[in-house]
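Treating backbone geometry as a discrete language has practical consequences that deserve illustration. Part of our work consisted of pairing the sequence of a single chain with a tokenised description of its backbone. What the numbers capture is local backbone geometry rather than side-chain detail. For completeness, the protein is quoted in full, as a sequence line and a line of structure tokens:
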Amino acid sequence: MAIKLPQLNRGKRAPTPEPEAAPPAAAQSTEGSTVVRNSVALVAVILVGAALYFMRSIVVPLAMAVFLLIMIEGLTRWVASRLPVPKRAVGWVSAILVFLSLFGSIWVIVDGLSGIVAQGQGIGERLDQIIADVAGLFGIQTPPALRDLVAGMDLTGYAARAALTTQSVFSAAFFTLVYLGFMMASKRSFIKKVVALFPLKRERYRATQVFERVRGGVEGYLMVQTVTGLMISATAWLIMVAVGLENPLFWAFLILLVGYIPVVGGAIAAVGPPLYALVQFDTYWQAIVLFAGLQLILQVSGNYIQPRMQGDNQNIDPITVMLFLALWSALWGIPGAFLSTPIAVMVLAITAQFAGTRWIAVLLSGDGDPYPVPPEQRKLIAEAKARRKLASPIKFS
């Protein structure tokens, strides 16, 4: 039996597979540089976050001073346009108004807290009565007293922590005023520094544009929150006076103050005065009226008034507001909660100005269109459209 061997093609070579074309060196370098840039940016964000946390005793007063300086600048322009004040004295008038507001706020808070502390004995007896009434609703014959509930608590430790917190608050307020004073004194040299940092006119215009957006966004946020906060606190003050709640000015100011904290501030404003009314009065209808009235005011303000007053400077996604609130509260505590939304406004304004970071502003914005597209971004979009047009198939009629 013969075995047939396959015939070889003597005059021809077997076809060899062609090697895959290697990507161009430019593409490889671009991909490598993108990975390196993203890695460096991630490490830088982590390091900056760690520095902000561990140096919060220094950075928080500085951030509050910058915040107050922006308020003074906005108030300065308002005073210059509305009041007959000499041009040289406008800045000093605005600063005096801000300092008077700060000291007036401290006086209202101290006076209100002293009034609450003075009623300590009556508050304890009223809490016992509330506990007994609630226990009666559930059929409990022998309700526990407030003294029994707090017997296992370390009241001395709580008092020590409260004293340390109060000391740190006053220390931070003092350093904030010191920083603010030096910032106001060095405003004249700020223009010279900008010229030295950006010698080219085009770069200087770009930096000025970013600064104007940041300032406009923060001032717009402050204007909306202040106006709506005054409306809410004034209406709440009228309701508190009508039901006879003690220290109505303190509670109205507290409602105005917590209004600058997103989400959480509304909850505090709606619950604080009704809880105090439960303690003050022997009946419960005052607390019910306060709770219903504050809920109505907050719903009308949050759903109708604030959306109409907010412009492009507050085009922020609610998820962004919550994330910034959680992040800066974890880093800086209560000051971080106050500054979370202004910081979000600043980040949105800065990232929207540059082509490489505009995607961050798009994600942070509420409708995907944070600000008008910068010139270089418009150029890139036009080039991308032109490439897509060239790559599209030709249609024959």
Remarks:
- Residues 113 and 227 are 25 Å apart (CA to CA).
- Residues 201-243 form the longest helix (43 residues).
- The chain has a mean pLDDT of 76.
